[in-house]
Amino acid sequence: MSTPSSSANAPSRELLEKIFRTAYKIRVFETEGIKLYRQGLIRGYFHPYLGQEGIATGVCAALREGDFIASTHRGHGHCIAWGADVNRMVAELLQKESGYCKGFGGSMHIADIKAGNLGANGIVGAGTPLGVGAALANQIKGSDAVTVTFTTDGASNNGTFLESLNLAAIWNLAFVLVIENNQYAVSTKIEESTRETDLYKRGIAIGVPSFQVDGNDPIAVHDITREAVEMCRRGEGPVLIEARTFRHMGHHVNDPGKYMPEDKLAYYKARDPVDRARAAFMDMGGADKAEIEKIEAEIAAEFESAVEFSTASSEVSIEDFREFAVGY
Amino acid sequence: MAFRELMYREALREAIDEEMARSPEVFIIGEGIAERGGSYKVTEGLLAKYGPKRVRDTPIAEAGMIGVGVGAAIAGARPIVEILYVDFAMLGMDMIVNQAAKFRLMTGGEGRVPFVLRTQGGAGGGVAAQHSQSLEALFYHIPGLRVVMPSSPADAKGLLKYALRQSDPVMFLEHKHLYMTKGLVPDGEHIVEFGKADIKRPGKDVTLIAWSNMVPTALAAAEELAAQGIEAEVLDPRTLVPLDKAMILASVSKTKRAVIVQEANRRGGVASDICSIIQEELFYDLDAPIEIVAGLDIPIPFNLTLEKASVPQKSDVVAAARRALHQDPLGLAAQ
Q1: Which site among A105, A133, A319, B8 is 20 to 30 Å from B320 CA-CA?
Q2: Global pTM?
């Protein structure tokens, strides 16, 4: 199977609104976050999800409370789509105690275990075995929760990709592996990383039902994920989804991405996932310009207030850190 | 207290069995551990008792299975991942070092990883360089891991039960030569907390600090030293992380002489670190330089004579203890 079957029902207004809000919120978070980075307020690494918003948005809209996700180094979008508190996300990026990880983790490690977010990960590909592990734990517990790992085209050439997806397959785990194929492993283009660039075929090779979808179409991503999740809940997992997309910039904030061809970038920008989410909400959901503007203003205000919240927060004290370190 | 005599492997099996019965979150995966009962028969009978959901064979995919175990632990289960040889754990080092060990800190203390990796190491029997290593120093070096090296059946059982009740990633390092050794194990609930060393033989003249398969070697050396009128104390830390510094320092304060015995090669080893801890705290109390008896800095050869020459023997420990007592400073007795 290489194409998703079309959605049986037209998406509801509620779903279309949720998808637009999420995609736009990620766009604002990344755009404004980059400004904070340029001002020197965010340190370390920052891998923007700009251009890929359709994937996290569509996937997470098809999941429910009690499910699990595992993310990548480019993880802000997954957290937001999972419903993370923007205050705590910004606070983490600003190294504050009120952040998701008290400022111990930073951009590449935001996690919320209680909410089922196993976290972003600084090691490319590591989320796949961790996600399969969560799916195994759920199977042993007798839970029907589904675990989704977001991974990347770069990670699909790593050994754990095969090892862990194969374990999920032999154990029929409720696990969905979403390959965000943005066609670059840092700066190496996919054609130089693999002979077969249709990555969904790797799932087929080991007996895993596998789909390919336009990752810049959040509604299509949602529909195929919903199908995958239903298969998993019926015991027909795991499922692999390859979502094709393209970054809007380099690997991280300080990478100008000059190796990315301009015509290709223009092609994907003309199919911008946030624009498509907005258009879908207007065309299919009947939202008018005023409603869109109101939502956009709300989200911008939410980010601004998160920056205020974070700026006012304190850092973990050296004394508390020393106490934390005891017994390590 | 009543005791039974058990083999090391039987004691390990009892620990897994009791904890699986006690807690539905405990499960075990590994190569050949289900149907076959494990290469060392540690998991024999568990498949029949707990079923294929909780006792699973895996493909030969160490990085994948270790990572899956770590993920299951993060998600609230209590996995045991059995890796046939500690040498093979090297295939999963990212999952151990970058994932399991770091997760708690990276999540600000929120995320815990109650993950137990059981494996075995050590030389002996001619299984050559890729099946004979003692790699505890690699794990000892990494903040966030617990490193456990039981030397007796009772410790093996008690420490494994404790490992399955605490919340940090544990490298549970067994020794291939200990599986068939026998010892008394207390009846009933027997748990050994981490960070508590054990005096395997009391003595007043010199402290022999040893773990895993070097404990029997140290005990045999102590026996020989006793015949020479030297009362050696044999101290087994049992867990290297956390390390029972207090008991080590108390023993060496008493004897004023320490010999640290490790099977692993010398360079960058745990013995060197224990040595630094002792000299830092007790420098002015020591009556002799601290001795380290360790393996040669070389991969373990296949040839049995050379293999034996690569790891510490009883005679090396005896000679080191005598040097510490200034009884044979030139080591002539060992030649």
Answers
A1: B8
A2: 0.96
- The reply to whether domains B8-186 and B198-327 share a CATH topology is yes
Return the sign of the alpha-carbon dihedral for residues A111, B112, B27, B34: positive
Residues 103-122 of A with CB under 8 A from B: 103-105, 109, 111-114, 118-119, 121-122
- Tell me the CATH number for domain B198-327: 3.40.50.920
**Distance, in angstroms, between B233 CA and closest chain A CA?**
27
What CATH code would you report for A13-325?
Answer: 3.40.50.970
- Looking at the complex, report in whole angstroms how far the Cα of residue A284 sits from the nearest Cα belonging to chain B: 38
Tens of pLDDT, residue by residue over B141-159, are 999 999 999 999 999 999 9
| Assembly ipTM | 0.95
Q: How confident is the model at residue A6 (pLDDT cuts 50, 70, 90)?
A: very low
pLDDT tens-digit readout, A251-297: 999 999 999 999 999 999 999 999 999 999 999 999 999 999 999 99
All residues of chain A having their beta carbon less than 8 Å from the beta carbon of residue B77 are 133, 136-137, 140-141
CB contact under 8 A, A129 and B59: no
Distance CA B27, CA A137 (A): 9
Asked if A167 and B69 come within 8 Å (Cβ–Cβ), the reply is: no
Parse chain A into domains and list their residue ranges. 13-325
pLDDT band at B327 (very low <50, low <70, confident <90, very high): confident
Q: Do B70 and A130 touch (CB under 8 A)?
A: yes
Q: Check if B74 contacts A (Cβ < 8 Å).
A: yes
CATH of the domain spanning B8-186, picked from 3.40.50.300, 1.20.1250.20, 3.40.50.970, 3.40.630.10: 3.40.50.970
Q: Does A176 touch chain B (CB under 8 A)?
A: no
What are the chain B neighbours of A138 within 8 Å (beta carbons)?
Answer: 75
